Amino acid sequence: MDHKLKLERQYYIGLMSGSSLDGIDAVLARWYGEKIHILATHFQSYPDILRLKLRHLVEGSGSEDPLHQFGQTHSLLGHHYAKAVLQLLAQTQVIPAQVAAIGCHGQTLRHCPGGESAYSLQAGDPHIVARLTGITTVSHFRQADMIAGGQGAPLAPVFHAATLSEPGRNTAVINIGGIANISIIDQHGNVIYGYDTGPGNALMNDWSQSHLNQPYDDGGTWASQHHPSPVLLDKLLSDVFIQKKPPKSSGRDYFHLSWLQKHIHNLSLSPGDIQASLCEFTARTIADAIGNHTPEQARVIICGGGWHNHFLVKRIRALCAPREVQSTESLGIDPDFVEAAAFAWLARCCIHQQPLWLKSVTGAALPSILGSITPAPPTLFDYSHPGVMRHE
Predict the structure, then answer these.
(1) What is the mean pLDDT of residues 268-275?
(2) CA angle 100, 105, 109 (to 5 degrees)
């Protein structure tokens, strides 16, 4: 590699596949000083068979040997991550040798923080990603924080503070994926709190799939046509996770349809009213977190797929008034790709050996360098011709 190419090796790729289990978000980014510039984005949906395998693993269902099921999924995801990277690069003039690293979060299957046996399990083999792309891959971001006594999640708040804060003003950043999380940033750009507030889209999506045979309630239209049940809402808001004080984190292995069925048992409610209750539940848990930690002059910034649920956003705006509520699009970052950009940033921190201390977010007692590095192989794999190796 010549000297000029070494100097240009300033690009990073972030990959995020979240608790919605819908696919892979990919971002190609470059930094000018500490300011991020996103060059390209790509979304790659999961094929139905992979989505089914993931749901079985997350929910502990299915008849297949779970270890075999995990092994297959771990490998299959690695191939899909690599494909997403190469399709992302195909949109630009950037070649793999110019990319310093990929930040590959992986697909979370279990997240169990707390205690001596705490763990967080993500699928998606980084060795496959590094081999098929020829790019150094950073993965397993959560483990070092958990060993330091932290929850291992959420990790995005430090990225939110670095890119979305406004001097002299408090900011709440809300990411609404399958699970919703909040970052509270003070007027000096410091992260004060960061934690999972509860379900974001997960329960609404699952309920819509079960009763409308649609993967999500488009724009929140179904929920807007019905009425939330005060009885059900009280039950949901009384859940032990919702009542727990931060730091706290959760996942789809906790908030799923079996969890919901326990709460709606013996309640005579229409499917539409249950959907409206789930929407209000998400809005209330988010608004309560904002109200607990920010003054009325604070601004609220939303990212994630939940921004496209117009009725949900309308309810959040109403509950958070008079605070200003906007999306990250107003700050130059597509709300669908903020989390992927965060893992490009975290990969950059890892490559530069920059420790991060997430005490105010995860509760970690010590700073840690987050991520494990899988080096790029000495040769590149030609993805268009499987099995063919080509030398640089």
Answers:
(1) 97
(2) 160
CA dist., res. 299 & res. 218, Å (int) = 26
DSSP letter string over 212-237? HS-SS-GGGHHHHTS---HHHHHHHH
pLDDT digits (tens, 9 = 90+) for 242-266: 999 999 998 888 999 999 999 999 9
Backbone angles phi, psi at 136, to 5 degrees: -55, 135
Q: Are 58 and 253 in contact (CB under 8 A)?
A: yes
DSSP class of residue 375 equals: P
Which amino acid is present at 181?
Answer: N
271-293 and 202-212 helices, crossing angle to 10°: 170
Looking at this protein, which amino acid is placed at residue 333? Answer: I
pLDDT digits (tens, 9 = 90+) for 162-218: 999 999 999 999 999 999 999 999 999 999 999 999 999 999 999 999 999 999 999
Alpha carbon distance 99, 260 (integer Å): 44
Rg (CA), the chain: 21
Show the tokens assigned to 198: 């509860």
Tell me the C-alpha distance between 335 and 305, whole Å.
Answer: 7
Are 189 and 165 contacting, i.e. CB atoms less than 8 angstroms apart?
yes
CB neighbourhood size of 241 (10 A): 16
Residue 9's identity, in one-letter code, is R
Q: What is the pTM of this model?
A: 0.90
Q: How confident is the model at residue 244, as a pLDDT?
A: 96
Alpha helices in 194-322 (DSSP H): 202-212, 221-224, 230-237, 240-243, 257-264, 271-293, 310-320
CA distance 283 to 285: 6
Strand partners, 14: 27, 103
Local confidence band at 9 (pLDDT 50, 70, 90 cut-offs): low
Q: Determine the residue type at 258.
A: S
Cα angle for residues 336, 340, 343 (degrees, 5° grid): 155
Are the beta carbons of 246 and 193 closer than 8 angstroms?
yes
CA angle 164, 168, 169 (to 5 degrees): 60
What pLDDT does 386 receive? 46
What separation in angstroms does the CA of 146 have from each of 40, 77, 106, 177, 244? 32, 24, 17, 22, 19
